[in-house]
Design brief:
217 residues; alpha/beta; Rossmann fold; Arc Repressor Mutant, subunit A; 13% strand; elongated
Length: 217
């Protein structure tokens, strides 16, 4: 009697990536791909229909659904599918975000640039119910030190909050200046002031802080 295969669902908004990941998985007789999705709405439908053991999903998968992508989607998955092993595929290399993903309970993270080299090691770990830690993970967090989140946020003015909201949404400082009918220099000064109050030192840390704090979710 053959051993029951470990079932896998794959999600990525690039069809060529889906095909590549499927081929890599199907080389291993322990696993069986039972579903695919190109956005988070499709993904949730497939998960509910197939109830797989493992989900391999892209971190950035734009979709105007209630599930979103990135950290928002991972939080939804951890709440609603607690027994599901989630393996994240990503181009993100920032240790703060990667550490946050593990904090949220993902089973592993694989860099897309290292997909062929890492996917087999990751699958080996997950098949044994172990977590797969990507190489050189920086465990630091923008929230680990200094004043707590609420104290930092309380220091921000309404104007600074609005600038951060627009910046995190993807707008440049020049675009924000036009939107707010103020000079780019003024916007830059207020952004720097907000970063100082939040105790972050770079744009990447600023974005990560806002994500971790669910500031504009």
């Amino acid at each position: 009697m053959s051993k029951q295969k470990i079932t896998v669902v794959i999600a990525d908004d690039h069809p060529i990536v889906l095909l590549g990941v499927r081929e890599l998985i199907e080389r291993d007789d322990r696993f069986k791909v039972v579903g695919e999705a190109i956005n988070s709405s499709e993904l949730i439908k497939v998960l509910n229909a197939e109830n797989p053991d493992i989900l391999i999903t892209d971190y950035n998968m734009p979709d105007h659904s209630i599930y979103g992508d990135g950290l928002k989607l991972v939080k939804y998955l951890s709440r609603n599918y607690p027994s599901l092993q989630v393996l994240i595929l990503t181009m993100v290399s920032n240790g703060l975000i990667l550490s946050r993903l593990y904090d949220l309970g993902v089973a592993g993270v694989v860099q897309k640039s290292q997909l062929h080299a890492e996917i087999q090691r990751a699958l080996d770990a997950l098949s044994q119910k172990r977590r797969y830690k990507c190489p050189a993970l920086n465990k630091s967090s923008v929230m680990d030190e200094g004043r707590n989140v609420e104290q930092r946020l309380a220091l921000l003015s309404l104007r600074e909050l609005e600038i951060l909201r627009l910046f995190v949404s993807g707008m440049s400082l020049r675009d924000i200046a036009i939107d707010q009918n103020r000079s780019a220099k003024t916007i830059s000064t207020q952004k720097v002031a907000a970063m100082r109050k939040l105790e972050v030192n770079s744009d990447q840390e600023l974005i990560t802080f806002c994500l971790e704090a669910n500031l504009f979710q």
